[in-house]
Amino acid sequence: MKKICGLVFILFSCAPSTLPKYSKLENLRILGLVASNPDPAVGATVGITAVVSYVNKDAAESLTYKIKGCADPGVSRGIVPTCEGGVDVFPEQTGSINFTTAANTDALSAVNITIPATFLDGLTGAALVIGKRYMVTYTVTSSNGAKSEAFKILTVSANTNKNTNPVLNNAMIDNAPLSSLPTTATTMIPSYTDASRETYLGYTGETKQEELITTWFTSDGNFRTARTLLTNIANFEPPAARPTTRPAAIVVFTRDERGGAAVKVYNNL
User: Fold this and answer.
1) Contact 258, 211 (CB under 8 A)
2) Tens-digit pLDDT profile for residues 20-62
3) CB atoms within 10 A of CB 82
4) Residues of the chain falling short of pLDDT 70
5) What is the pTM of this model?
């Protein structure tokens, strides 16, 4: 049996992967959600921007979204991120999606939700400063049955040292902003403001500085490095030929470790 298991391991470990590359934009995907205020107070209105891509969308397909808010049911403990049967629910909103270019990749218009005014009722002292987690769920559905789901956790508190989103300026190639789909292998780095890396107090009282992580996506070619830390380089390999029936798209998504996020969508390359 040991020999058989060893053979199975060798066969599976040597087989070429058929999994799609994480950075490749093809099928319907929500790439991420950006909250206008990732660290809101009770009663605050928060705009939620979904970054959606569906490069392979058929012309006849239509897309709709639905968004809902509720108290975090315990996602960090493995609970399914759903607001069905939840508490402190913000009513579901729905709408249609229309992309701005034929690359079918966009940061959609923000949809507003409101944090319940009573969400922190019953908390006092340090518990008010720590706050509670509020969850936003977002679903995009195609008329052909394709679906993509995402959720965003907001920290609602009375803390006066609020987290804000990083400010992402551009993807940079050789000190110049990305303006066209590269035709040769190259490297890219994110450009963001110095103030994007905020300082904050850790759980044990130590001062910490945010670490920004950037995720890279492309409709054509390939990012050999799907995620980079701070301003480390992302290696890009161009396609053998650029698309002829649509523009190419590259998406740069930067996050901090406290829920802040920023996105830059290039959908007409």
Assistant:
1) no
2) 689 999 999 999 999 999 999 999 999 999 999 999 999 999 9
3) 15
4) 1-20
5) 0.90
Domains of the chain: 21-266 (2.60.40.3880)
Residue keyed to tokens 């590359």? 21
Q: What is the pLDDT of residues 101-122, one digit of tens each?
A: 999 999 999 999 999 999 999 9
State the Rg of the chain over Cα.
21
Let me know how long the chain is. Answer: 269
Best CA proximity match to 57, nearest among 109, 111, 106:
106
Q: Tell me the two tokens of residue 196.
A: 């994007």
